[in-house]
C-alpha cells in the first residue's frame, strides 16, 4: 500500500501514523509562507581544467594561453571555436548547451574563483571547500549542512531537506542527518528477504534503532525514514518536462533523478551531485573538441541544460525560478600543459551559477596570465573566494545571513552580484 | 620535441582508456551488466503481488513498545569479541570457544591470539586453501610476467583481461570468510586502501593477482620500504599515477605528489607553497614535512621510471631521466645518476622519515582502534616503526604495539564496520557455504548487490583509498544497500529448491522464540546484548505467542521463514555495525 508522499515529509513515520495527516498538512503550510528556494551543488572531482572551459579570446593573454597550451588551447575560429561570452572570453564548444542558457541570461560565469588556501592536494582542497573551513579537515560539519541548519525557513520537523545523489554523503553535508543519499530509487527498497516478514522485520528494526545518542542507531533510523519517503514517491509521475533530453550516462541519470525529486516537492532545499574524471594529467584531449575532457564537459553541459529545461517546463512549482545550481571544483589546473597532453594541479578556476534568478554574464576580475600575474608563477590566480559566491547565494536566495556560522572565519563579504535577491547584513 | 613514447600513447596503447570516470572502455560497467544478467534468476527482488495483504497482516501483529528503552551503554565485551571483530571479520562458529582456550585471563588470551595471528605461516589454513582450489581460480599464482603474457599482450577479450581481478575480488571474500589468518586479511584490506589503485582498467586488472600478492599481501607484516618498492614498480601503479609517462622532457608529478601526500609523509606534513629552505626542521636537521618544490624535485628523480610494455615490468630508459642535481627533503641528490638510483633514494628517504612513521601509524591505529585514535598509541607505533625500519618484520612490530595497547580493548565499539566487514561477518556467523567461484550465480548476485553499498572491491577511483571513518559509511545509501544484501542472502536459493544458508539451530538448542533468539544472538554477536534488544528479537520470533512456546520451525515453512527474517534482523540491527 502506498501512502501519499506528504505523509512522510515531516516527523518519523511512526509519529506520522499517530498524528494523522491533517496535522501534517498544517505543519507544512505553517512552515512555508512562500515557496522555498533550492540549491543544487555539482562538484567536479579531480580539479577541472577551467582554462579548457572558459578561455581568453583576445589581447596579450590570448597569446600567452596559446603559447602555454600548444595542444590544448581552445581555438578562436574553425572547428571547435570558442563560443563568445562577453567579447573578452569564450566558452568551450563542447559546452554549447550551456551557451544557449547563457544567452538566455541563466548562467553566471565567475572568473578566477576558488579556494585561496595554498594546497595543490585534491583531498585537502575538496575537504577544505566542502567543510567550508580552509586549512582544517577535522570540522565535523560541512558548509551546506550548516546553511540548512541555520536557515530559519527550514522547519526542524522536516525530515530530509537534502538529497545526495550517490551511495555516499559528501563532506559538504558531513554529519547532517537530514540527507537522503541515494543513487537509484529502484535499489532503495527493502524488498529482499522472506517477503511475508519484510514489514514486520522493518517495524522491529525501527524499534531496535530507537536508543538515541548513538551514531549507528540514529543513522539506521534515518535510513529507514528515507526508505519510507522514497517508497512513497512516484517518480514516474514526473517525466522530463520542457522537452528535456538527458544524456544517457551517469551525469544524465543523476541530474534527471535530482530534477524528479525536486519536482515531486518532497521538501528538498539542497541537492548534491558528484561528477568525477577531471584529474586529467594525461591525454586530456586530442583536439579542441575530442577527448575525455570534452566528452565529460559535453555531457555535463547537456545534462545541466536538460535539467534547467525540465525545471522550466514543469507544469507546477515554478522550479526554474526557485532552483539555483552551482558548479564547482577543488582547483583549476596549471596554465602550462604538460608533455602528456595533460595538465597538472593548479589554483584558480571558473565557477558557474545557473538558474532563473541568476544575473547572467561574466563576473569577477580576471587576474591575467602574465608570469608576474600568476599564482606561484604557474597557475591562474584567484580574485574571488568561492565563499563569496556561496555567501551571496545564502543571503540572496535563502535569506540566510549566518555567514560566520556557514563559513567560520570568513571576513569581508560583499556580494559579487551573481544572483538576484535582497541583501542582508552578514551575521 | 620528438617523444616517441608520448606520440603513440594516445592512439595505440589502451593504458589510459577507461581510467577516467564514465569513459568508454571502463571494464566495471561491463562486469556489472554481466553480473546482473547471470544473477537475475537468484535475485527475485519483488514479492508475489497477491502476498502483499498477508504481509501487512503479519506486520500488524507485532507487539508495540510504548516509549523507548533507557539508554544503556554497552558494557565492554570480553577480549574474544573485541579481538575477533577487530583483528578479523567476526567470529565463525567455534572461534569464541577456541579463543577462550588460549589462556586463563583475557590479557593472556589476547596476547596469545595476537602472537598466533602475527605468525600466519604457523596457522593451518588448509580449508581456505582447499576452497580457493575448488573455486577454480587459475591466475592467483601467476607472476607479473605470466599475467602480462596471458592477460594483457595481444589485446585479449575483456573477460580474459579481467580474470585476474575477478579472481582476486572473489578470493578476498573467500579469505575474509574462511581463512584462519584473519589478521592478514584485515591488514591486506587496509594496505589496499593505503596504496589504492582503481583496478577495473586495462593495466591494473590483468596484473591484479600480482599486485595483491606481491605488492600488498607479502608485506603486511613485513618491511614498509620493501612494500613501497614493490608498489612503485608495479605496472598498475606506474600507470594509475602516471609515472610511466614521467619524462625529462615532460615531467608528470602525479606519482610524486601522491607518494608524499598519501603513501608516506602524509597531508598533515604538507607545508604547501613554501620554499624548501623555509620548512622547519627537527633536531636531526630533517625537514618536518614537504612543500611543492619537494614534489617537483622528487618528480625529477622519478623521470625515466616507466613500464616495459613487453614484460609488464618496470623499465628505466636512460635518455628519459633528468640527470641534473636535485634537492629532496633537505637531501642533495647528485647529478649523473640513473633513474633507478635517484628514485630509489627518494623511496629510501621517505620510507624512514619521521612524518611517514607518524602517518603510517596513524592510519593503522585509525583502522584498528578508533576514528580519532589516542595519540599515545599513535606515537608508540610511530616510534616502533622507526626503531624497526631495517627489520624484515617492521610492520609486524608496529601492529603488535597497537593491538596490545590497553586502548585497543577500551575503545570497543568506536569503529563502524564498513560494508565489506558487515557482509563478511554475517557470512561467517552464518557459516555460509558460498563457493565464490567464477560464473557462480549466487556469488554474482551477492557481488552485484554489494557493489551498491559504495564498497565494491578495488573500485575506489581516487588514490586515497576507501574512507575509514564512521560518517563515511552511515549514509542512507550505504545502509539501505547493505540491508538489501543481508536480507537477500538469508533467503537466497541454492539453485536446487533449497536455501543457500541454513538457519536452524541444533535440536538441543530448543525451538521456542526465546531459545532461537538467544542461540542466534550468541552466534552473531558473541556478547550479552541489552534486554531491550533481546526482547525485541524474541518478540519478532514469537509474534504474539509465549516466548517459551516451542515453534514448528523445522516443519512449518512459514515459521522457518520467520526465523530467517529474525536472523537477518540481527545482521541489519545497528548494534551489528559496531566493532
What is the residue-mean pLDDT of chain A, rounded to a whole number?
Answer: 90
The portion of residues forming beta strands of chain B comes to: under 5%
Number of strands of chain B: 4
Oligomeric state: heterodimer
Globular, elongated, flat, extended or rod-shaped: what is the shape of chain B? Answer: globular
| Structural class category of chain B | mainly alpha
Helical fraction of chain A:
25-40%
Ends apart, CA distance between termini of chain B? 57 Å
Q: Which radius of gyration of chain A do the C-alpha atoms yield?
A: 22 Å
Determine the number of helices of chain A (DSSP H or I, runs of at least 4 residues).
Answer: 13
Q: Which regions of chain A contain 5 or more consecutive residues with pLDDT less than 50?
A: 1-33
* Largest beta-sheet details of chain A: 9 strands, mixed
Description of the structure:
The complex is a heterodimer of chains A (427) and B (579). Chain A has 427 residues and is α/β, with parallel strands linked by helices. Chain A contains 13 helices and 12 strands. In chain A, the strands form 2 sheets. In chain A, strands 1, 5, 6, 7, 8, 9, 10, 11 and 12 form a 9-stranded mixed beta sheet that branches. The longest helix of chain A is centred in the C-terminal third of the chain and has 22 residues, at 292-313. The N and C termini of chain A lie far apart (47 Å). Residues 1-33 of chain A have low confidence and may be disordered. Chain B has helices at 4-12, 27-43, 52-60, 79-86, 95-100, 106-118, 126-134, 144-151, 158-178, 182-194, 208-216, 224-232, 235-240, 254-263, 292-301, 339-351, 354-368, 375-387, 394-403, 406-410, 419-429, 441-451, 476-491, 513-524, 531-542, 557-572, and strands at 306-307, 314-315, 326-328, 331-333. Chain B has 26 helices and 4 strands. In chain B, α9 packs across α21 (419-429) and α21 packs parallel to α23 (476-491). In chain B, the strands form 2 sheets. Chain B has a two-stranded antiparallel sheet with strand order 1-2. In chain B, strands 3-4 form a two-stranded antiparallel sheet. Chain B is mainly alpha-helical and 579 residues long. In chain B, a hairpin with a 6-residue loop joins β1 and β2. Classes of the chains: A alpha/beta (427), B mainly alpha (579). Chains A and B meet through α5, β7, α7, α8 and α10 of A and α1, α3, α14, α23 and α25 of B.
Amino acid at each position: 500500500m502506498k501512502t501519499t508522499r506528504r505523509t512522510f515529509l515531516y516527523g518519523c513515520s511512526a509519529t506520522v501514523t499517530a498524528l494523522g495527516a491533517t496535522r501534517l498538512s498544517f505543519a507544512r503550510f505553517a512552515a512555508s509562507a512562500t515557496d522555498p528556494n533550492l540549491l543544487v551543488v555539482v562538484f567536479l572531482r579531480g580539479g577541472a581544467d577551467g582554462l579548457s572551459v572558459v578561455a581568453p579570446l583576445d589581447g596579450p593573454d590570448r597569446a600567452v594561453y596559446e603559447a602555454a597550451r600548444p595542444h590544448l588551447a581552445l581555438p578562436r575560429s574553425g572547428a571547435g571555436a570558442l563560443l563568445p561570452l562577453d567579447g573578452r572570453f569564450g566558452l568551450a564548444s563542447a559546452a554549447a548547451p550551456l551557451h544557449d542558457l547563457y544567452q538566455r541570461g541563466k548562467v553566471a560565469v565567475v572568473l578566477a574563483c576558488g579556494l585561496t588556501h595554498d594546497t595543490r592536494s585534491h583531498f585537502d582542497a575538496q575537504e577544505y571547500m566542502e567543510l567550508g573551513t580552509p586549512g582544517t579537515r577535522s570540522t565535523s560539519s560541512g558548509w551546506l549542512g550548516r546553511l540548512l541548519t541555520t536557515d530559519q525557513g527550514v522547519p526542524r520537523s522536516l525530515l530530509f531537506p537534502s538529497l545526495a545523489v550517490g551511495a555516499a554523503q559528501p563532506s559538504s553535508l558531513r554529519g547532517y542527518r537530514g540527507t537522503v543519499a541515494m543513487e537509484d530509487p529502484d535499489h532503495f527498497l527493502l524488498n529482499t528477504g522472506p517477503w511475508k516478514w519484510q514489514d514486520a522485520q522493518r517495524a522491529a528494526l525501527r524499534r531496535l534503532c530507537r536508543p538515541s545518542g548513538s551514531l549507528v542507531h540514529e543513522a539506521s533510523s534515518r535510513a529507514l525514514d528515507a526508505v519510507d519517503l522514497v517508497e512513497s514517491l512516484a517518480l514516474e509521475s514526473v517525466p522530463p518536462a520542457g522537452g528535456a533530453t538527458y544524456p544517457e550516462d551517469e551525469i544524465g541519470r543523476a541530474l534527471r533523478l535530482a530534477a524528479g525529486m525536486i519536482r515531486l516537492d518532497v521538501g528538498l532545499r539542497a541537492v548534491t551531485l558528484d561528477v568525477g574524471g577531471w584529474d586529467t594529467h594525461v591525454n586530456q584531449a586530442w583536439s579542441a573538441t575530442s577527448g575525455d575532457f570534452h566528452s565529460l564537459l559535453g555531457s555535463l553541459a547537456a545534462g545541466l541544460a536538460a535539467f534547467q529545461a525540465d525545471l522550466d517546463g514543469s507544469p507546477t512549482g515554478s522550479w526554474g525560478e526557485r532552483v539555483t545550481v552551482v558548479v564547482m571544483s577543488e582547483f583549476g589546473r596549471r596554465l602550462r600543459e604538460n608533455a602528456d597532453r595533460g595538465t597538472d594541479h593548479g589554483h584558480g578556476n571558473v565557477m558557474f551559477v545557473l538558474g532563473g534568478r541568476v544575473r547572467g554574464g561574466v563576473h569577477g576580475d580576471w587576474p591575467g596570465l602574465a608570469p608576474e600575474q600568476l599564482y606561484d608563477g604557474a597557475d591562474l590566480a584567484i580574485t574571488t573566494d568561492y565563499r563569496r559566491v556561496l555567501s551571496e547565494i545564502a543571503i540572496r536566495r535563502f535569506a540566510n545571513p549566518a555567514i560566520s556560522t556557514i563559513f567560520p572565519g570568513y571576513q569581508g563579504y560583499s556580494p559579487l552580484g551573481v544572483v538576484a535577491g535582497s541583501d542582508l547584513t552578514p551575521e | 620535441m620528438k617523444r616517441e613514447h608520448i606520440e603513440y600513447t594516445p592512439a595505440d596503447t589502451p593504458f589510459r582508456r577507461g581510467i577516467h570516470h564514465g569513459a568508454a572502455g571502463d571494464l566495471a560497467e561491463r562486469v556489472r551488466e554481466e553480473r546482473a544478467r547471470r544473477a537475475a534468476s537468484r535475485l527475485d527482488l519483488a514479492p508475489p503481488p497477491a502476498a502483499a495483504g498477508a504481509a501487512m497482516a503479519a506486520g500488524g501483529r507485532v507487539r508495540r513498545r510504548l516509549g523507548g528503552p533507557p539508554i544503556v551503554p554497552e558494557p565492554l565485551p570480553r577480549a574474544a569479541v573485541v579481538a575477533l571483530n577487530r583483528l578479523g571479520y567476526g567470529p565463525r562458529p567455534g572461534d569464541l570457544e577456541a579463543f577462550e582456550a588460549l589462556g586463563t585471563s583475557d590479557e593472556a588470551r589476547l596476547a596469545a591470539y595476537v602472537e598466533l595471528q602475527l605468525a600466519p605461516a604457523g596457522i593451518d589454513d588448509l580449508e581456505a586453501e582447499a576452497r580457493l582450489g575448488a573455486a577454480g581460480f587459475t591466475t592467483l599464482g601467476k607472476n607479473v610476467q605470466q599475467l602480462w603474457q596471458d592477460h594483457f599482450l595481444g589485446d585479449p577479450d575483456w573477460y580474459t583481461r579481467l580474470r585476474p581481478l575477478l579472481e582476486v575480488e572473489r578470493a578476498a571474500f573467500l579469505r575474509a570468510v574462511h581463512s584462519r589468518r584473519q589478521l592478514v586479511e584485515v591488514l591486506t584490506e587496509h594496505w589496499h586502501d593505503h596504496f589504492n589503485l582503481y583496478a577495473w582498467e586495462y593495466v591494473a586488472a590483468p596484473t591484479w593477482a600480482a599486485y595483491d600478492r606481491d605488492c600488498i599481501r607479502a608485506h603486511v607484516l613485513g618491511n614498509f620500504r620493501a612494500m613501497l618498492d614493490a608498489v612503485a614498480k608495479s605496472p598498475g601503479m606506474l600507470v594509475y599515477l602516471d609515472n610511466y609517462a614521467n619524462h625529462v622532457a615532460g615531467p608528470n608529478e602525479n606519482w610524486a605528489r601522491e607518494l608524499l601526500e598519501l603513501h608516506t609523509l602524509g597531508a598533515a606534513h604538507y607545508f604547501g607553497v613554501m620554499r624548501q629552505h623555509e620548512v622547519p626542521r627537527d633536531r636531526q636537521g630533517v625537514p618536518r614535512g614537504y612543500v611543492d618544490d619537494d614534489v617537483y624535485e622528487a618528480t625529477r628523480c622519478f623521470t625515466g621510471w616507466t613500464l616495459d610494455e613487453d614484460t609488464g615490468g618496470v623499465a628505466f630508459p636512460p635518455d628519459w631521466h633528468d640527470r641534473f642535481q636535485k634537492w629532496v627533503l633537505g637531501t642533495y641528490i647528485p647529478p649523473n645518476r640513473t633513474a633507478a638510483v635517484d628514485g630509489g633514494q627518494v623511496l629510501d628517504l621517505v620510507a624512514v622519515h619521521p612524518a611517514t612513521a607518524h602517518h603510517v601509524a596513524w592510519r593503522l591505529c585509525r583502522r584498528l582502534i578508533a576514528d580519532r585514535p589516542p595519540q599515545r598509541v599513535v606515537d608508540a607505533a610511530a616510534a616502533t616503526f622507526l626503531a624497526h625500519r631495517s627489520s624484515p618484520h617492521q610492520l609486524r612490530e608496529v601492529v603488535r604495539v597497537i593491538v596490545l595497547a590497553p586502548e585497543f580493548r577500551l575503545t570497543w565499539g568506536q569503529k563502524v564496520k564498513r560494508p565489506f566487514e558487515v557482509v563478511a561477518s554475517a557470512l561467517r556467523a552464518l557459516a555460509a557455504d558460498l563457493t565464490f567461484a567464477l560464473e557462480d550465480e549466487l556469488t554474482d548476485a551477492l557481488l552485484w548487490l554489494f557493489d551498491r553499498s559504495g564498497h565494491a572491491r578495488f573500485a575506489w577511483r581516487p588514490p586515497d583509498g576507501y574512507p575509514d571513518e564512521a560518517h563515511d559509511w552511515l549514509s542512507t545509501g550505504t545502509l539501505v544497500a547493505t540491508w538489501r544484501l543481508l536480507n537477500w542472502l538469508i533467503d537466497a536459493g541454492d539453485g536446487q529448491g533449497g536455501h543457500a544458508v541454513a538457519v536452524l539451530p541444533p535440536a538441543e538448542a530448543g525451538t521456542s522464540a526465546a531459545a532461537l533468539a538467544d542461540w542466534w544472538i550468541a552466534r552473531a554477536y558473541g556478547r550479552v546484548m541489552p534486554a531491550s534488544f533481546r526482547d525485541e528479537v524474541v518478540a519478532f520470533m514469537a509474534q504474539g505467542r509465549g516466548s517459551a512456546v516451542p515453534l514448528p520451525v523445522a516443519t512449518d515453512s512459514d515459521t522457518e521463514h520467520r526465523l530467517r527474517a529474525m536472523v537477518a534482523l540481527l545482521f541489519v540491527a545497528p548494534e551489528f555495525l559496531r566493532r
